[in-house]
Sequence to fold (237 residues):
Amino acid sequence: MLTRRHFIATSVALFSPVVSAPALASTWPSASQKATWDAEVTPWNYDPATTNPWGLHPRFLPQRVEARPDLVPGDIHVDALARYLYHIEEGGTAMRYGVAIGRDGLYEPGTYTIKRKVEWPHWTPTAAMVRREPETYAQFEDGMEPGPSNALGSRALYLYVGERDTYLRIHGTPQPWSIGSRASSGCVRMVMPHINDLYEQVEIGSTAVLYPAEGDGPVTAHDWDVSRGPSLQTSEG
Fold:
């Protein structure tokens, strides 16, 4: 059983949920359009460690931290209690980002494989989302085209269990003020420039471990010492 203990020592990203792509997307953005949108959502003179027009708590800005030496480089770990996502690097470090997670009862801790990644994705709410909140999602049941106001934002990492798409994503959000909260319908949200940076570093086939949040049950992960829990950093920071 994995429980959160402590995660680390510092050194030197409207909807966020369960999502799928429209069966028949009407448009696919060109490279030029993607570049235009990237420029639109990236602040001028952007520095990941200091740029903060979104008013985030400083601890949610990207930081490189010292990681436990036994962690697998390339893997992603989400500390749902602290609202941190860690991307493990070679050499004993990790990049840490602030995130938002699913609302009570919608967040799904577990061990997943990233089998797809998309720049400026389409988005369609699931049938369950439409049934649960028709006033919010029914208008998008045929899908939402890509763009800065799309629910998945600028980038999406698609989480699978085996060959099954879970409809859970790690993705950008047009609601950066939600970072640090339980706001989505199940997915992990990031500020768009932050996930743009992360996206370039993540390889297909990487593992993503989502740890329990308040009130969530235990999760089993094959590559963790279950007696110690998800202590990612070597000390608090």
Summary: Confidence is low (pLDDT under 50) at residues 1-24, 218-229.
